[in-house]
Amino acid sequence: MRRPEKAYRPLETSDSYDTITQQRETFMSPSLRTFQAYSRPLVLKRGEGQYLWDVHEKKYVDLMAQNLCISVGYNHPLVNSEAKRQIDRLAHCTTMYAQSMPSHFAEELVGRFPPGPEWVAHFVNSGSEAIDLAILMARLFTGHFEIIALRNGYHGLHFGAMALTGIQSCRQPVPSAHGILHVPNPDSYRGVFGSAVAPYVDEIGHAVMASTPGRIAGFIAEPIQGFGGVIPLPPGYLAGAFERTRAAGGVCIVDEVQTGFTRTGSHYWGFQAQGVLPDIIVLGKGIGNGFPLSAVVAKREIAEAMARKKFFNTYGSNPISCAAGRAVLRAIEEDRTLRNADETGDYLKQRLLGLQAKHERIGDVRGSGLMLGVELVKDRSTKEPADVEAGKVAAHARDNGVIVGKGGVFGNVLRINPPLCIERHDVDFVVDILDQGFRCI
Ligand SMILES: Cc1ncc(COP(=O)(O)O)c(C=O)c1O
To answer: Does residue 186 line the site of ligand 1, with CB under 6 A?
Structure first.
């Protein structure tokens, strides 16, 4: 046994920009180069609330929240204290044994879903794992195989999840998982059928008729396509899509990895704004405020289909992550993030629309709550994407203390998804910096 009195020396850690970037280049996988925020890497040191500091102690307002993982804010006192309490008790306990954190968390989490169905939760570690699990559940429950997904959707990059992701730059040139059909995504700004809803819904029926035996396992969509460029599904689309899916024997899966936990304002979950009730919901990112955690919440009868063969995931239900998840649920309520996503999100959107009125390069401002996108075009009538200009605005923002994302299939959409604790005065600051950036391009 370890001697209790033994004093371990703390590990030495460098804060040198050059050391960290060289180590990353030399010892970490080259694949990191494919998804790096800036060509000159940003090396971060600490965070507090909606702010980050780099290794040079430069402060930033963070509009990306680590790709929406930081929901209730960096260094959140409740999340930290609950996670630390659990570290000191038991860092891990596999699901072969019972433990208090996953069971408490499951009860508290399913209690946040609309009443009616008997919801159950299954915890894993990343969005991609949760997506794979949701697809497996849908297939086992229905006994059918094909899954319909949306073009331009993002569901992760592991084997199964990558097959659902409908974005060329995310598709490795290898045989993909079978049984996935992509239909046109209802994009009111650039979509093949413009801002209409019915033709996009009809495409689901056409895909069932043309490419399946007539029965499908399910349909999956993000309420707002995040990585794909912050593209909200128009009102009525999910209701139509769910109807077509259920008519073909499938279950309806919503990917709330980005949109969940009050992010989109007005409701706790993104699907609620569309007035629908899914059968399976996939959660990730903000669920753990930075701790590796994801979940599939499903109607019990669907999840029961997974109980016929073994299913085990070594780190699924990790008690530290579940302790953090419980604290996130509490913080969402106590910090009133839903109200903030509504009020500050609305104020931010209005200010961005104000920028659109001033700057021709802004073709579209969209999204809801604190999940917003600003699409840059060279010309509003041709909608030719202005990706270089978007890069310049993002670089200007970085130089002036604002981290903003740049995404969309053409790389021309500024992505704005700050921690849910961002305040009005931060909005004034970031909009002024973006305004300057637009004046420089
Ligand atoms: C909507 C959505 N689903 C799934 C995933 C995959 O999550 P992960 O990167 O944790 O595997 C992501 C990641 O960005 C996402 O945005």
So the answer is: no
Alpha carbons 374 and 136: distance in angstroms, whole number: 35
The CA distances from residue 247 to 17, 143, 216, in Å, are 57, 15, 9
Cβ-contact 185, 223 below 8 angstroms: no
Residue-range definition of the domain harbouring residue 324: 78-334
Candidates 383, 378, 370, 376; CA nearest to 356 is: 376
Rounded-to-integer distance, Cα 394 and Cα 144, Å? 45
Q: Is 256 in the pocket of ligand 1 (CB under 6 A)?
A: no
326-356 pLDDT tens trace: 999 999 999 999 999 999 999 999 999 999 9
Does ligand 1 come within 6 angstroms of the Cβ of 126?
A: yes
Same domain for 375 and 408: yes
| CA 80 to ligand 1 center in whole angstroms | 23
The reply to whether 12 falls in a domain is no
Q: How far apart are CA 322 and CA 318, in angstroms?
A: 6
Do residues 239 and 221 touch, judged by C-beta distance below 8 A? no
Are residue 412 and residue 358 in the same domain, yes or no? yes
Closest CA to 386 of 413, 404, 368, 412: 412
In this predicted model, what pLDDT tens digit does every residue of 227-248 receive, in sequence order? 999 999 999 999 999 999 999 9
232 secondary structure, DSSP code: E
